[in-house]
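Minimal example, chain plus magnesium ion.
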Amino acid sequence: MPTNESTEDAPRTPPPASAEEPSANGRPDASERPDTESSAAGGEAPTEPAMKPKLNINDLHFWYGDNHALQGITMDIQPHKVTALIGPSGCGKSTLLRCLNRMNELIQGTTLEGTILVDGQDIYAENTDPVMVRRRVGMVFQKPNPFPKTIYKNVAWGAEINGYTGDIDALVERSLRQAALWDEVKDRLHTNALDLSGGQQQRLCIARTLAVQPDVVLMDEPASALDPIATSKVEETITELKKDYTIVIVTHNMQQASRISDETAFLYMGRLIEMNPTDQLFTRPEKDRTEAYVTGRFG
Ligand SMILES: Nc1ncnc2c1ncn2[C@@H]1O[C@H](COP(=O)(O)OP(=O)(O)OP(=O)(O)O)[C@@H](O)[C@H]1O
Ligand SMILES: [Mg+2]
């Protein structure tokens, strides 16, 4: 619900703290990062055709009342990749994630400007149905939140309310397999989901999101409440999922970002400071502020 409020004061230029100008999509020119991807990918990159971004975010501004939480974010998110959003608490990671499936507009008194395209379609266009957007762009939350129902009903729920007419048993099995939970629960599908461990509950929530058959899966710190074993299961699941989905994940865990993501975007005070292939961002960051953050010197 964009307002007519003037944004003349809205900073649309890169952060003053950084002397370097990020390129339009927050990434350096290809000429500036000659051999990174090719060496990392064993020489595949030069022949890889240029992919159309799955999501294209252009000059995105977001306000909660007069709190200017996102200040001109421009970035592309590639299909079948895991993109990690990192940055200090309060920098706008969750806000950005929620803009990507129009969940922020459920919060009163907010204003959005800029555009977000999914497969080239403007998700905030007047004729775009927000319910359709949320179906296509699913969300997994920080805290596993299964319903107090059976495992089966948790997964079938989204499909049922969306009027799914196919084989629900098959959909439940497929979703649980994709979430790497099937083998652990196939003999107890009709028991209460709340009896699962935290890590299993989180994978169940991933299965529930997948059952709605989205293209893009947003995850807001999905493993932060889990122990290391459950975390590694969820990370394996995410790595598997990128074959079929585009994943955007918020994490405070630098090791996790470097283990599972292909690209990393570093946000600071509502702005995108740097977005690059993950190994590059962690080992050869372009901006001093990124380096300070990833080496633990602030934040
Ligand atoms: N529902 C809300 N209502 C009002 N302000 C909000 C709301 N959610 C976030 N904000 C504000 O927007 C800014 C960005 O918050 P956001 O939750 O996006 O940060 P974050 O990077 O996800 O932080 P964290 O790492 O702590 O989760 C903060 O100033 C925060 O206070
Ligand atoms: Mg957050």
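Residues 93-94, 220, 250 surround magnesium ion (ligand 2) (CB under 6 Å). The two ends are 32 Å apart (CA to CA).
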